[in-house]
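Try this one yourself first.
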């Protein structure tokens, strides 16, 4: 749903047992009416199928709730169909949209929707110590 702008126009592709669908702005002679928001961060919707069972999982939640909500809506992701939430690690560009998403869809999400969080070090402080500035990634 959200990835760095480099992937905005990447083509969709099929791999063995995997269908990767990329959605970017339409490359045409007409201006877009609405478009996906591309920003620093990551958010993915993953659909897994086994036989006639389907599971929908959101993995990470991007940098801002505005981008996550816009893109989920534009891609037609049904919050009621989500089976689990997964946070890979504690960087703002992976969890920034989570609270806004939960607030926006609180009455639509499944009761007791599980949230899986990365390992023990998921929220350990991480620092950028190289130029141009020092930054703590735990904002």
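Now uncover the answer:
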């Amino acid at each position: 749903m959200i990835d760095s702008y480099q992937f905005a126009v990447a083509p969709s592709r099929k791999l063995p047992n995997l269908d990767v669908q990329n959605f970017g702005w339409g490359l045409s002679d007409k201006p877009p009416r609405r478009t996906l928001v591309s920003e620093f961060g990551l958010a993915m919707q993953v659909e897994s199928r086994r036989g006639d069972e389907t599971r929908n999982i959101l993995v990470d939640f991007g940098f801002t709730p505005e981008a996550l909500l816009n893109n989920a809506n534009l891609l037609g992701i049904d919050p009621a169909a989500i089976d689990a939430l997964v946070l890979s690690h504690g960087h703002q560009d992976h969890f920034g949209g989570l609270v806004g998403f939960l607030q926006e869809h609180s009455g639509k999400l499944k009761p007791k929707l599980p949230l899986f969080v990365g390992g023990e070090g998921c929220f350990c402080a991480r620092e950028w110590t190289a130029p141009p500035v020092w930054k703590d990634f735990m904002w």
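Discussion: The radius of gyration is 16 Å. The chain has three helices and eight strands.
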